């Protein structure tokens, strides 16, 4: 992993961080919402949740890792990414070493 990535979006600076906690929380989100592993990669609404999780971990990883409501916060926070350019989303994912297809799916499959 390459650590963190900071971008400016809608006038705010956002720091994204990809951690094991992001994958774990995304897996829990998928289980809670009966989301198939391939849908985590193929549906942008689920990728928005991943972006929001990465943002929450980028703000404070220790706090995010212990927050029992992190998934609910990520779903709500992820709505703002509906207006983000797809190239920007891919740029964030690529710069963090996350391939849009594959890594999250593989992690989800390992858990099941």
Which helices and strands occur, and which strands form pairs?
Elements: E1 4-9, E2 12-17, H1 20-32, H2 37-42, H3 44-59, H4 61-66, H5 70-77, H6 86-95, H7 103-111
Antiparallel strand pairs: 1-2
Helix pairs in contact: 1-3, 1-7, 3-5
Can you offer a commentary on this structure?
The chain has one domain (4-111). Helices cover 61% and strands 11% of the residues. It is built from 7 helices and 2 strands, in the order E-E-H-H-H-H-H-H-H. It has helices spanning 20-32, 37-42, 44-59, 61-66, 70-77, 86-95, 103-111; strands at 4-9, 12-17. The protein has a two-stranded antiparallel ribbon with strand order 1-2. The protein is globular.
Give a summary of the structure in a few sentences.
With 112 residues, the protein is mainly α.
What key attributes describe this structure?
112 residues, mainly alpha, 2 strands, 61% helix, globular
The dominant shape is globular
* Computed Rg: 13 Å
**Helix and strand sequence:** EEHHHHHHH
**Share of β-strand residues:** 5-15%
Mean pLDDT: 85
The strand count comes to: 2
Main beta sheet strand tally, sense and closure:
2 strands, antiparallel
Low-confidence stretches: none
């Amino acid at each position: 992993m390459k650590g963190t990535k900071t971008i400016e979006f809608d006038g705010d600076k956002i720091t994204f961080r990809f951690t094991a906690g992001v994958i774990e929380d995304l897996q829990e989100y998928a289980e809670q919402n009966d989301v198939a592993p391939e849908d985590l990669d193929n549906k942008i609404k689920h990728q928005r949740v991943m972006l929001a999780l990465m943002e929450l971990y980028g703000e404070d990883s220790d706090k995010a890792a212990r927050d029992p409501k992190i998934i609910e916060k990520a779903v709500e926070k992820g709505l703002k990414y509906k207006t983000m350019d797809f190239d920007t989303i891919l740029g964030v994912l690529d710069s963090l070493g996350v391939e849009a297809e594959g890594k999250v799916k593989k992690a989800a499959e390992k858990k099941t």
